[in-house]
Amino acid sequence: MKLFSSIHKSILFSLLLSTLLHSCQSQDPDVVLLDKLDKTFDVSKFYAPKIKKTESILASDVKNMDKKAIKEVFETAMFKKDTMAIFDSEGSLPTPFYLESNSSWGTRKLKPKKYYGYRYTTVSYNEEKDTLAMLNGVAFPSLAMGENSDGKFAYLYAGKTSKNMADFQNIQNFLQKKYTALNIAEETGSGVKGWESPDFYYFLTKKDRTEEEIFSFGESEDDKPTTTAISEILLEIFSKEYIQDMRKEQVYLKDYIPVAK
To answer: This protein's superkingdom (predicted)?
Structure first.
């Protein structure tokens, strides 16, 4: 009887520990695990502490900070929250309307057709140190998200400047394996690769460039390559409900985004 009780307690403890670990991983307040993203993701909850910290930093008096505090400020990622609204394109786009922040340079004096929701953007970050999202072992330091006025997830843009040529392939391999590929015409999305799940569209792009090496005094340029290959990687994730809403409102969308069913 004691043996059964001991085994029973051990099993219960293991189940409790497993549940706790899963809960911690799926509800990490600092990093979005993109392979676990679903329609219930709370965008405002994720960004709230980040926006609060940014506002606190911006309200601080730099004159009263020591060098260590100032250094910390410059190394801290900062974020902003914008109100998104639908505006008349006035014939400048192939659709009657477009979605934009009501505080941007081109819209701040315009009257919107209607308000949509909110956009959260990473405005400064450290490419090497910051991680806001993860997918298949690849870290994204830059993240923008949108939500509608009811707080429902709308879209996500995850960006990364990478010197590791395997990063793009690792992301693409995961998307190809898990989701259904979209047929994107070259004329509508040059270099864009797309997939879909029951709830989302996924689009992956990269722009390659080279960057000149900076040598320290005393180093020989003959010992190192003069340039480094860089990839600007962008992963876009759109809720199909968001796409449907934009189609109904006749809001401009990129040509490679299909009509959500």
So the answer is: Bacteria
